[in-house]
Write a structure and sequence with these properties.
Blueprint (H helix, E strand, L loop, with lengths): L4 H34 L8 H12 L4 H19 L2 H20 L9 H21 L7 H9 L6 H20 L1 H23 L4 E7 L3 H12 L4 E5 L2 E3 L2 E3 L3 E9 L3 H11 L4 E7 L14
Length: about 300
């Protein structure tokens, strides 16, 4: 059923409110990581935030100003490559973070270097992840990486890796190898936290099944696992059984990583020669992802 304009406007309004709270909470968490852990001990993170922290150590420029200046070019890129709405949200998030860093004081929570690296990265990563969930960024490195990767054979991950290798090499030269290594640990902690915040605890796996027994396998998955299955039409092809001319079907479903072995067992019970492809899903919405009650 097609929604009315009023219903669509209400959905957009609710989403904007949700995004606002994600960004607000993310900025607060990032501020705790910066003021409570990293800043008092001259530790760095990766990306644009790491550049801001390094310049703060090497120059008299205030960190709040550096956060805005360093991220501004990335936000402009984001406006051109992603959307103006994304850029506006990001500007608001970055300015809010700069205000928090400048005006709100947090006591140094620990002097243990390992705890500083791990928990400083955790709070900063949580802040970055929550802000991304709100449709904005407070660290624009990924925007640059996405832009450059479109005109190169390198992936987004490759660009971010190269960027951080250069950053931590400079950090080792200017602030010492030990602090640079702790800063790398901070970055690893932050990046894992960002992944956790964005993808959640239940990582989902997409599974595509090519088999001559699609009806039997589809019914087995639905009945024995309570998992939704999408049936896709396929044309002729070539497989382990040789070339087949007639049209067929391909099954597709999404399960949690804990259910993959059970799914493979259900497939093997019926067709041990089925061709199965698995890939990690970044996010899922709608459909029958969770198990339904089986009677």
């Amino acid at each position: 059923m097609k929604k009315t304009r009023e219903a669509i406007a209400q959905i957009i309004f609710k989403q904007n409110i949700k995004d606002f709270f994600f960004v607000l909470w993310g900025v607060f968490m990032a501020s705790v990581g910066l003021k409570g852990f990293l800043l008092p001990n001259n530790f760095l993170d990766g990306g644009a935030m790491g550049v801001s922290l390094l310049l703060n150590i090497l120059t008299p420029v205030d960190l709040s100003l550096l956060i805005v200046l360093i991220n501004l070019p990335f936000v402009i890129l984001g406006a051109r490559q992603i959307s103006y709405a994304f850029a506006i949200k990001s500007v608001m998030a970055i300015v809010l973070l700069a205000v928090f860093v400048h005006f709100i004081s947090f006591p140094a929570l620990t002097s243990d270097k390992l705890l500083i690296a791990v928990f400083g990265g955790f709070f900063l990563g949580a802040g970055i992840g929550l802000t991304i969930r709100g449709g904005a960024v407070i660290d624009g490195t990924e925007v640059l990486a996405i832009t450059l990767s479109r005109n190169s054979s390198l992936t987004v991950g490759d660009f971010i890796g190269i960027f951080n290798i250069i950053l931590f090499s400079l950090a080792a030269y200017f602030i010492g190898i030990e602090k640079a290594m702790y800063s790398m640990l901070t970055y690893l902690s932050a990046s894992k936290t960002v992944d956790f915040i964005i993808n959640g605890i239940e990582e989902h796996i997409g599974v595509m099944i090519v088999t001559a027994f699609s009806d039997e396998i589809k019914n087995s998955i639905a009945e024995n696992m309570g998992v939704g299955v999408t049936v896709l039409k396929s044309e002729k092809g070539f497989g382990s059984r040789g070339e087949f001319e007639k049209e067929g079907t391909v099954l597709y479903c999404a399960v949690t990583r804990l259910e993959v072995s059970k799914l493979l067992l259900e497939i093997e019970k019926i067709d041990e020669r089925a061709f199965v492809v698995q890939h990690i899903l970044k996010d899922t919405k709608g459909g029958m992802i969770k198990k339904k009650p089986l009677h």
